[in-house]
Amino acid sequence: MAASLGFRGAASGLWYWSGRRRPVGSLAAVCSRSMASKTPVGFIGLGNMGNPMAKNLMKHGYPLILYDVFPDVCKEFKEAGEQVASSPAEVAEKADRIITMLPSSMNSVEVYSGANGILKKVKKGSLLIDSSTIDPSVSKELAKEVEKMGAVFMDAPVSGGVGAARSGNLTFMVGGVEDEFAAAKELLECMGSNVVYCGAVGTGQSAKICNNMLLAISMIGTAEAMNLGIRSGLDPKLLAKILNMSSGRCWSSDTYNPVPGVMHGVPSSNNYQGGFGTTLMAKDLGLAQDSATSTKTPILLGSLAHQIYRMMCSKGYSKKDFSSVFQYLREEEPF
Questions:
Q1: 301: annotated binding-site residue?
Q2: How many domains does the chain have?
Q3: Where is the 3-hydroxyisobutyrate dehydrogenase-like NAD-binding domain (predicted)?
Q4: Is 58 among the annotated ligand-binding positions?
Q5: Same domain for 50 and 192?
Q6: Which residue segment(s) compose the domain that 176 sits in?
Q7: Which of 21, 234, 283, 312 could serve as 317's disulfide partner, Cβ 3.0–4.6 Å?
Q8: Which residues are catalytic?
């Protein structure tokens, strides 16, 4: 059986924006394993993202075989008639299509190649889709181990956050063998409105890391601009309005503004609760740093953003939404 894999890089979570939902189109051509049938689908990882994703599979008629390291989170699924397994290996024994949604590289390695991991019982021809945010190099190593067992591995990280997960409006960035993309897409379209093929295994993770680095940089920039304007005597709502009709407009300013009271329904107006945690952003930026090092790519602003979010974590912001960088800047002593 597969040996435990080594990995490098920080663990990661991710929060991105996804556009308005489009109606699910006709199903792609059915691959050799006949994806159209509503046979059981394994789902491992029922956290803030995995829980609503699994529920959307249920809404589309797929029976589930579930596992989470915290049994209590499986209770509502069991009461709804779904099967709950005692380990990832049991999930692999009972399902030949499995989706994993885990918080870190370490968790993914354990679930796939650990003592009771998927690879202990995986069936030949199984399709394994990992929607976790992890180091691309770990995805590639997992894919090699899965291939040795005669199965198929694809990385399919998501963007859109908890809200999009609940509404089935996620965007999936998929890496893997292109011939298997149609098979993966049929399942992923139950949970998202955009399913994009990126290339070989690991490219989905790379796309996600790039997007999240840009998100962090733009959020810090928005927070700095808003803070400067407020301290210069501008009304924050007026300033946001001006920014959003000008060239400085970005997602962080017009959809997820970090200033309390400027927008409703965002973490900044709820004491920065919910959303995407500062700790997870720091971890994602760590992945970007690792990728930049391995590819010898300069990421000057990305590295600075990493430092800022790490400092925030050390100063009590770890459990707050990453837009709390505005609050952090407000509380810092003037330079």
A1: no
A2: 2
A3: 202-328
A4: yes
A5: yes
A6: 41-200
A7: 312
A8: 208
